[in-house]
Write a structure and sequence with these properties.
The protein has about 50 residues and is mostly helical. It is built from one helix and no strands. It starts with 10 loop residues before the first helix and ends with a helix. This is Mitochondrial outer membrane translocase complex, subunit Tom5.
Length: about 50
């Protein structure tokens, strides 16, 4: 990984990787919240109808 002669990652590639990681984390958190709230939403819809 840190051996001499390996390519260096450019700052643009690092920024792109950070943006992708942030988006992945946000999607995972959003998915977890939606999964937590889904039973309550289903109960509400069943009571409403």
């Amino acid at each position: 990984m840190f051996a001499p002669g390996q390519e260096q990652i450019s700052k643009e590639e690092i920024k792109a990787g950070e943006a992708q990681a942030n988006q992945t984390i946000r999607m995972a958190v959003t998915g977890g919240i939606l999964l937590y709230l889904s039973p309550f939403a289903i109960d509400f819809v069943n009571k409403f109808l």
